[in-house]
Design brief:
Shape: globular
Number of helices: 1
Strand order of the largest sheet: 6-8-10-12-14-16-18
Order of helices and strands: EEEEEEEEEEEEEEEEEEEH
Length: 234
């Protein structure tokens, strides 16, 4: 522990005792800031990289309460560890200059608003064989520069307005596991030119899930499910 300690060293010279006082100052150990019970973060200003290390769930935050909020405007890259199991709510919201992110295979849930307003994010990669099952509300809201998104197999639910305002999105692939896409999930993705949906049962969608998406673009679905898609609501 940090502090100043007094040690008494006694030497015997005949009948006299000499006492030496040693002042020892101990600096506290430098530990990266905590962002989960077993997750820690560091920011390197020279490379402008935010690194998360450790394992398990990340803490949830609200807007502007992330522990790295004071440098969010400067972050250019984010590194996430294999072993991380969730990305917390609002974790990286407003990291406006991050251009790419890789979601580790161990992540099971992307929390609401996790990457909201990451406006320069153009490359979103999901590690193969991942455990991801849910993408939360507003998770990638206003990530304008995203152009191609392939939601990985295993994801069953996409939350409200999760990809709202991804205005440059041109291609979208949804997995066979997809079951539900909430209202406004892909609203304002007006440049979407094609969709591939690998689910044999049409996912449940709401009236505005694809608001302002051109209704004449091709939608590719499994051959055996064509009739189901033609008759599915919305």
């Amino acid at each position: 522990d940090a502090g100043t300690y007094h040690y008494y060293i006694q030497s015997e010279f005949g009948c006299d005792s000499i006492h030496y006082i040693l002042h020892l100052s101990v600096e506290p150990a430098v530990v990266a800031n905590q962002c989960g019970d077993n997750l820690y973060w560091t920011y390197e200003p020279t490379t402008q990289e935010l690194s998360i290390t450790g394992y398990g769930d990340m803490y949830d935050y609200t807007a502007w309460t992330q522990p790295w909020n004071t440098v969010a405007h400067a972050i250019l890259s984010i590194s996430l560890p294999e072993g991380m199991t969730s990305i917390g709510a609002s974790a990286f919201a407003d990291c406006k200059f991050v251009t790419n992110i890789t979601i580790p295979a161990s992540v099971e849930v992307i929390g609401f608003s996790a990457f909201e307003n990451c406006r320069m994010l153009s490359d979103l990669t999901f590690a193969e064989g991942g455990a991801l099952s849910m993408i939360g509300n507003w998770a990638f809201y206003n990530c304008h520069e995203l152009q191609n998104i392939a939601i990985p197999e295993g994801v069953t639910e996409i939350g409200y307005a999760a990809f709202y305002g991804c205005t440059y999105l041109s291609e979208l692939t949804l997995p066979a596991s997809m079951q539900y896409i909430a209202d406004n999930g892909f609203a304002l993705c007006a440049k979407l030119t094609s969709m591939t949906v690998n689910a044999t049962v049409p996912p449940t969608v709401a009236a505005r899930t694809f608001e302002e998406v051109d209704r004449t673009i091709p939608v590719y679905v499994p051959q055996e499910a064509v009739d189901l898609y033609k008759t599915a609501p919305v």
